[in-house]
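User: Can you model how 4-nitrophenyl phosphate sits in this protein?
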Amino acid sequence: MVCLGNICRSPLAHAILEKNTSDIIFVDSAGTSNYHIDSLPDSRMIEKGKEYGYDLTKLRARQFQEEDFKKFDLILAMDNDNYKHLIKMVKNPDDLQKVKLFLSNDQDVPDPYFGKADGFEAVYKIINEECQRLANKLDV
Ligand code: 4NP
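Assistant: Here's the modeled complex, given as structure tokens:
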């Protein structure tokens, strides 16, 4: 799960997917930027997760690394900007097919960071719905 800061969208997706899939699926998240390395998720997203039963407080932001292309089978970008960033980082052409947009309708998950509080509820709903779909698709 990859967004820009790894403090809003991708940590929420990380927590939801991890809780709704079995242990054989390893879920992680990262940001394409280095803005918030080692930070807790944004407090507004921690609160939103808590409201729906997801604990985000053990997560810390990290920056996506080239080695992640080797480590992961599927790399999902929260929006087109981050998708393009990841695609530019690809060195091995086989890794290209691992990178996809998170939303199956190819839309962007809006970035709630600079918006109002109700943006976090809207983003929660978008991410949760897609995570439930993903969990059903991925889990065995
Ligand atoms: P995220 O949100 O990519 O969903 O974690 C953002 C967090 C921080 C910033 C931008 C987006 N920022 O510019 O610091």
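A couple of observations from the model: The chain is about 40% helix and 5% strand. The CA atoms of residues 16 and 53 lie 9 Å apart.
User: Helpful, thanks.
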